[in-house]
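Regression check, fe (ii) ion case 350:
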Amino acid sequence: MDEKSIRKKLLSSDLKTLHRPLGGAGSSPYTPISLAALIPGNRLTFNLYLKVAQKGGQGFKYLPFLKQEEAWETKWQDLLTQKGIDLLYFLNEDLEKAIAYLNNSLLLLKYESAKVSQELLAVFSEHLNLSIRLAFQSSRFGPVVQQAKGHVEDLIERLQQDPTSIKQVWKILYHHYDLYNHSLNICLLGIAFMLSLKRSARETRDMGLAGLFHDVGMIRIPQEIIVKKEPLTPGERAELYHHPEIGYRLLSKETSLSQVPNDVLRLALEHHENADGSGYPLHLPLSRQHSWTRVIRLLDSYESLTVMRPFRPAYKPFEAIKIIREARGPRGPIYDLATLKNFIAFLSAN
Ligand SMILES: [Fe+2]
Ligand SMILES: [Fe+2]
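Current build output:
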């Protein structure tokens, strides 16, 4: 079947499409890309595929949907959205092409308007999402940190000029859990929350970058531990608990210190430290933590709880807040309650 007949079949509802990726990350030869990040009229520089269920319900396959050099059209967007599909796929080997494509779209959108549109946010986050995918796979963070810095600074400047646009951030958060989506969500929530606290552009930028890179140490943790549904053994837990230190080392070693700001390194190292000193790896009480560790600690948990996981559905925001408010360690609350109060105010205002 070629692209045209597949599109026709989709129109006639003959094709059983899959709305959500299945299986663990990293094992598929295809990478998902959000439809919202494709700009109508722009010619593709890589092939796009549709994920469909195999006949008989056994597994799935990828069918060619749009060829390189074909232009993305609003009608495809509408058709797929109607079917409840929000992702298409490209071959992993085209990852750099897809990043360059999104970078071009981003520059174009930035040039066209000084505002924060839904389109701009969608391209911005998908570009960063694919960029960290590439960086996490190759462990070369320097160029990505550099580029992310520029895009994040630009976004912050636009959001500061029109604070009402902060609300739009909620609409582009990813709902399917994987390491990259999680990192992007923390980046976007971190930026929006820091701006609501009236923090400076530099502090907000560093929180955004910390969101992107805080879990980079997870790339060195065995996949079986990450996807395990049963409770971890003490040995497995000890291994998992190394990821903040590994991330800190990767970020400070693989790039020069001038590229990764010191605050970002500290936040990556401390993002699992608890307010009562019962966290890891350094068991620091609140008074000895970086001033924004309490923010990333809270956002990290809130995001994880409100996103669907393979072993449980997503918690509603108020349920997640309740869990966070009631979480206690041996010496007191795990989360800083003053930060939680500000976060609840931020949730209700946006
Ligand atoms: Fe983590
Ligand atoms: Fe995390």
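Comparison notes: DSSP finds 15 helices and six strands in the chain. The pocket of fe (ii) ion (ligand 2) is lined by residues 182, 214-215, 300 (CB under 6 Å). No diff flagged against the previous build.
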